[in-house]
Amino acid sequence: MPRDSSLKFLTQLDELKTQFGASRAKTIERLLARLRKQTITDADTLMRLHETLLFLRAYPQTQHVVQETESLLRQLPNWIGEAAVQGVDLDALDHPDKSGIAGRTVVDTFSYYILRDLVRRYPREVEFYWDWFEDENRLGEIWPHFMPLLEEDAFVEANIPYRAWLQAARGKTPDVNWLIEKFNRLPLTDVAKAELYNSQKLYVQWTPAYSSTRTGMRLPAKLRSGPIFFHREPLLQRRDVSLVDELPKPPPRLQKLSRNDGQTILDLSRDASTTRYRELYGFTHGDASRVLKAELGRGVDLFVMGLPPSKRLPLRAYHAAMIFKNQVPIGYFEGLSLCERMESGFNLYYTFREGETAWLYAKTLNVMLHLLGVTAFSLDPYQVGYDNEEGIESGAFWFYRKLGFRPTDRRLLKLAEQEEVNIRSRKGYRTSAPTLRTLARSPLIFELDRRRAGDWDRFQVRRIGFAVQHEMARRFDGDSEKMRTQALQLLLKTIRRRLTDAERKIFSDFAVVLLLIPDLAAWSREEKRGLLKIIESKAGRDEAKYLQLMQQHTRFRTALIDLGSR
What we know:
Elements: H1 3-16, H2 22-36, H3 43-58, H4 63-85, E1 106-108, H5 112-121, E2 126-128, H6 137-142, H7 150-154, H8 162-170, H9 175-184, H10 190-198, E3 204-206, H11 243-246, E4 254-256, H12 259-274, H13 281-284, E5 291-297, E6 300-305, E7 317-325, E8 328-338, E9 341-348, H14 357-372, E10 376-379, H15 389-394, H16 396-401, E11 406-407, H17 410-425, H18 433-439, E12 444-447, H19 461-476, H20 480-492, H21 501-514, H22 525-538, H23 544-552, H24 554-565
Helix pairs in contact: 1-2, 1-3, 2-4, 3-4, 5-9, 19-24, 20-21, 22-23
């Protein structure tokens, strides 16, 4: 059939994908059957079809829709291959906003941790992409570690054939695999290996198998909570959701996964991010032995993961979550917590933003509240549009404002309230893009516990970091090691045991912060004992206990807020 036929069917499908009822479902099934008979080679049409099929697979109305969308998604790589043979320009399919489609590649300067993981799991799918490589001097500084006599060439000659050196050295082993293995064997810490590898800025091309692409990635059936949820009624809208009502509700049951299943979730989460040119700290360094599963309902499974002690942040507790809807990965969550305050980052992949975004967000916060005790949720300005035009175009500020968030800047709160008056009183009024950019200059916060409203309005953990730097410059001549050593020695006077390496790092980080608390010496013995328990729990099994102890220590909470609000 001609191209305009497929466009007609696709346009109808787009219009119907969020409409529900038996007749709509039958129409969707007929349109999918007609599309299966098409031969589509236009890049824009292929992209639109891909996103529509993924949405329908995540939000299906019938089992037949599930089967048809899976069949068409399987057919997409064939259409893409046929288009490539015809010489069609398919570069649009590789844009970072649209990457990860089956049949295409992902090219990036992957970090050492991500590339090491890709080589471990997909040794035949990765290769260097030399066309974009720019700085050969970096190779001359590093590769002599692995290649005898390379100094003879690299240190004194021009136009060094580094690829020829690599090909001669690697034998029958693929380039990427050989080089990563050499880095793995260096007598350095993982952090040092990563710094050294990343400094090369080597581009790598990953050609993922179908099951690792955005097109084909699915949660394994054994990790799915129940049968597919079929949508026969309108999707839940933002107006149907109240955080005040939703957050205190009893949470779903949390199930701790086995280490193997936890690793499966981490692998899926990394792949979902890597194919989209993202790297989330919690997915890269997540603890496979501490992955929790929550069934949110409506076909949604949420997997929450923490960090092992060696990868934890100095002060904030870190938790990430991956969200699957009817086995399809649809988004992720990142939470950074101190006491009862969590800085929350919620990202629903653009394909699924017409779905039940507000309900998903509320359910995720409900889990975090009951798991960690957090009751104040803060948003970085970027989330609502600061230096983020996508956030401005999507009206992200109003999405969160209508859920109950408020700007922490009082002037911008007044501006938001004036805009709300305008919206109520002037028919058709819409907040202008410049005004949205102004509103996006302030963090937003939602506080379930109104008794503590405003406590965290001026807080930034960065301010504690700056204060530590100033103290280091003032008292220790800018010598960080001297500061850490002396501060740790003071703290260790109260500890009667040896510390593990992970504990020593955590204790020294806390020690330099404690130097900033002017009245620490006047704290009671019980308060100091409670502080010690907090620090010890930072290196414990997970960081939930750490947060709970911190929430109970009123004096330490007050000191932290004061240090981060100056």
